[in-house]
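(Fold this chain)
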Amino acid sequence: MASSGGSTTTVGDIEEDASQLLFPKEFENAETLLNSEVHMLLEHRKQQNESAEDEQELSEVFMKTLNYTARFSRFKNRETIASVRSVEGRFEDEELQQILDDIQTKRSFQY
């Protein structure tokens, strides 16, 4: 059932509101995409549209999202994006923090 604001939905006792990061149960274990991955997908869609015989105008939201992901995409090529995904989850948080602390310590000795 939608509330009067139109942006929240109540399911059982839980009120869903994406603006408050309260998502439906289906999103609990969902994998997210990197901005770079989203940009790659949108760029592919744009190229498909441009090469189509009956090219359609892309929506303003599509273009804004494409521009946003272009601006904030950290990784530019497919191989780099795949490498980032392969490293993800390789280290536990504590182990990664120890590595970062060690790097910082070594840097402080160099200067």
In short: The beta strands are 8-11, 14-17. The first strand starts at residue 8 and ends at 11. The helical segments are 35-51, 60-72, 78-87, 93-110. Residues 34-73 form one domain.
